[in-house]
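fwd from M.: "can u put these together and see what the complex looks like"

so here's what she sent:
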Amino acid sequence: MENLKHFLLALCAAGAAGFVAIIFVLRWVLHFKEGLGWDGSLAEFNWHPVLVVTGFVFLQGTAIIVYRLPWTWQCSKLIMKFVHAGLHVAAFLFAVIALVAVFDFHNAAKIPNMYSLHSWIGLTAVILYGLQLVLGVGLYLIPVTPVSWRTACMPIHVYSGLLLFTTVIAVALLGITEKLIFGLTNPKYKDSPPEAVFVNILGLLLVIFGALILWIATRTSWKRPSDQTLHVLHTNSGGEDAKVGPALSDLTDETNAESGEDVRRRSNKPPVDNQVD
Amino acid sequence: MENLKHFLLALCAAGAAGFVAIIFVLRWVLHFKEGLGWDGSLAEFNWHPVLVVTGFVFLQGTAIIVYRLPWTWQCSKLIMKFVHAGLHVAAFLFAVIALVAVFDFHNAAKIPNMYSLHSWIGLTAVILYGLQLVLGVGLYLIPVTPVSWRTACMPIHVYSGLLLFTTVIAVALLGITEKLIFGLTNPKYKDSPPEAVFVNILGLLLVIFGALILWIATRTSWKRPSDQTLHVLHTNSGGEDAKVGPALSDLTDETNAESGEDVRRRSNKPPVDNQVD
C-alpha cells in the first residue's frame, strides 16, 4: 500500500473521532438527559441519538472502508463482502430501532410525527439505505447476477453509499439542533449552557468522522488490490502462495466482478467512472 | 463526451433544482416572512438565507462543475480557471454578506452570536472556503508555482472543495431547521403550517441540487479532456485547428499542470488518486 503511514493516521483519526462521538452521545443521554429506557418516555427517545451515532454513523462508516484495511487483504473478497454487507445490515437495524424509539416516544407524548426536515430526510435516508442494501446483496452477493450488471451498477452503488452516509451525518446534525432547541429551556440553547457546548462538540466530531471516512474511501492508492495482483505478489514472494491460496480460491469469477474496476483492469481498459476530477 | 444525453439530463435537473430553490427562498422571505431590508430588523436577517442559497450553494455548485460543460472545452483552460475562481469568489462574497446580515440582526436584537451548531460549522466553512480560495489562486493561477506542488495538492483541492460544498448544504439545512423552529410560533413548526411544508421542500431541493452536482463532478467520463487530446481531435478533424489554436495557445505548461491528472497523462502514469472505489 502506498503511504501506509498516512492511511494508518487517517484510520486512527477516524476511529478516534467515531469512538469519542459514541462516548459523547452516551454521556449526553446518561449525564445531561434522562438516561435510557423503553417506556415511551424521554428515556426511550434517548435511544434514538445513541443508536444513530453508534450504528447509522459509526458502523456504516466502518462498513464503507472495511475493504481498505490492509490486514484484511489476505481474506477472500467474498468474505470481505459478507463483512461489508453484515456491518451495513447491523447499521440498518440500529437505524430502524432508532426510528421505533422516536415514533414510540412521539405517540406516547402526543407529538406529531414527520413534520420536520430532520424527519423527512431521515426517513427517506433509512428507506433508501434499505433499498441500497437489498440491491447490493442482489447484485454482488447472489452468484447468478450477470457480471455486466455488476459492472454497470458499481459506480451507482459507490456513489449512493457515500451520498447516503453523508446525508445521514447531515440528518444527525439536524437532530442534534432540534433536540438542543426543544430540550434546553432554562437556560436556553442561546445561553450556551454546558450541555449545548458539549453536544455542539458531538456534532463537530460527527463531521470530522464523516470527512475522514470520505477521505479514506476516495483514495485510489488505498484501494484493496485486485485478487489477481495479490496472487501474483504472493507467488513472486515465494512460499506465500500456499498460505494465501485457499483464501483466494474462495473467489469465483462473479465475486471478482463485484468491482467494475476489477473487470476493467482485466480487460486493460482505463477506469471511466468513480473518479473525482 | 460519453453519455452526453445523461450529462445534459443531470445538468438540467441540477439547474432546475437550484433555480427552483432560489425561487423558493425568495418566496419564503417575501411572502411568508418580512421581506428584505438592511435596517437590523428581521428583513435584514432575511438576506442571510437568500444569499446563502443563491451564492454559497448555487454559485458554488456551478463553479464546481463549470469545467465539465462541453461547450466550454473550446475555451482555454486558463480562461476556464478564471471562470471557476471567479464564481467561487462571488460565492464567497455572498457568504460574507450573508454573515454580516445575521450578525447585524443578532446584535440589534441582542441575540447571542455563535452559540449554535449551525453557526459553529457555518463560520468554519466560510473561513475554510476563504482559505481554499487563497490556496487555489496561489497554486493554480499564479504562474510561478511549481508543477510538482500543483500536482501534489490537486487531490486535496478537489476533496476539500467537494467536502466544503457538502458541508455548506448541511449547514443550510441546519439554518432552515433553526429558523422554522424559532420563527413559527402560532401555529408551531410541529403543526405543519404551509410555511413549514414549503420550507421543508426548499431543504429537499438543496439536497437534490447537492446530490446532482456531486454526481456530475465525480463522473470521470464527463471530465474536460486534456488540452493535448482536444488539440489532436481538432487537428484530425481538419480545418478546425486554426479556430481552436489561438485559444489553446493561451495555455502554458504551468496552466496545463493545474490538473494532476493532466500531468500524469503526459507521463503515461495511471491516476493514483481522486477516484472513488
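replying to her w this: Chain A has eleven helices and no strands.
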